[in-house]
Design brief:
- It is a single chain.
- With about 300 residues, the chain is an all-alpha fold.
- The protein has a domain at about 1-70.
- About 70% of the residues lie in helices and about 0% in strands.
- It has helices at about 1-10, 15-35, 40-45, 50-55, 60-70, 75-85, 90-95, 100-110, 115-120, 125-135, 140-150, 155-160, 165-175, 180-195, 200, 210-215, 225-235, 240-250, 255-260, 270-275, 280-290.
- Helix 1 (about 1-10) packs antiparallel against helix 2 (about 15-35).
Length: about 300
């Protein structure tokens, strides 16, 4: 590959581009590109057909061609990205998210379906890059991602995204979960519990509207005492006493009945912590605990 790259420097750029397209093909050209000087590769890319560049991108190692990609014209990067999206190359796009400016990535996915957005996000293994894009997406696009996860029943994969996002972005995504069907909300909460993603979800709850929070927490999964106790333990470990108060206020009568059976909420040390850190009157906390039969 290094010898081929050296040979390319001895030929006119248009001729090298012709050889790449007609003789080497996209896969071999991708391997040569990995050892080319970025400036030479950038000049060469300007003489390659966009369709050929799209096929070549599938075989590129993003970590080895970052300098080349960043030197390409923005409109060319966006055009290749959109062609990859149209071809369903979500894995390729996900691998390139980390080396493309967020503004360009957003142009690539402009108008993309919720399914496409979900798939690209799942294949993005750089949390900071994913966060930069999610932060710039409007709420309705995040809602489309949640609905796509529901349609594909990809709940396990979707909750994994929560671990990669900042608390602010996690709050926005969780809020969208509260607006889907009852079945979808139940499935998402079940996946959160199965994969123990509560440490990512609980800090997101204070910023969610009360009616949305109520829709989120009043699902079959949270009618199980072991789940309630896990939530309580995570809230204690994260020092999120106000979140537990919010959950109690959001629970319906059936869920409040389950709270009465919680062993963790009967713990005197935990109750003392709640009284001291709940952010409301300690007397009110004690009154609620008493009314639930926990004291």
């Amino acid at each position: 590959m290094t010898r081929l790259a050296a040979l390319s420097r001895m030929l006119p750029v248009p001729l090298t581009a012709k050889i790449a397209q007609l003789a080497l093909g996209p896969m071999l050209s991708a391997r040569v590109a990995a050892v080319l000087d970025p400036r030479e590769a950038t000049r060469l890319a300007g003489h390659l057909d966009v369709g050929f560049l799209t096929r070549l991108a599938v075989s590129l190692d993003p970590s080895r061609v970052a300098g080349i990609v960043r030197g390409l014209p923005d409109d060319l990067v966006v055009e290749v990205g959109r062609r990859l999206l149209a071809a369903g190359e979500h894995l390729t796009l996900g691998r390139f998210v980390a080396i493309v400016a967020p503004e360009l990535a957003l142009q690539v996915v402009e108008g993309a379906s919720g399914h496409d957005l979900l798939q690209v996000a799942l294949f993005t293994d750089e949390p900071d890059a994913l966060e930069a894009i999610v932060r710039r997406l409007p709420d309705e696009r995040l809602g489309a991602v949640v609905r796509a996860a529901d349609e594909a029943q990809a709940y396990d994969a979707a909750v994994g995204l929560l671990l990669a996002l900042s608390p602010v972005s996690c709050t926005r995504l969780v809020a969208q979960v509260g607006m889907v069907s009852d079945e979808a909300r139940a499935a998402v909460v079940a996946a959160v519990d199965t994969h123990d993603v509560w440490p990512a979800v609980l800090p997101a709850l204070p910023a969610i509207e009360p009616e949305v929070l109520a829709a989120l927490v009043n699902v079959p999964t949270t009618l199980e005492v072991p789940v309630i106790d896990r939530v309580v333990d995570h809230a204690r470990a994260l020092d999120l006493a106000p979140v537990l108060v919010q959950l109690v206020l959001g629970f319906d009568d059936a869920h409040l009945d389950v709270l009465k059976e919680s062993r963790r909420l009967r713990d005197p040390d935990l109750q003392a912590w709640l009284v001291d850190h709940a952010g409301v009157s300690g007397r009110l906390v004690l009154a609620v605990l008493t009314s639930l039969g926990l004291r």
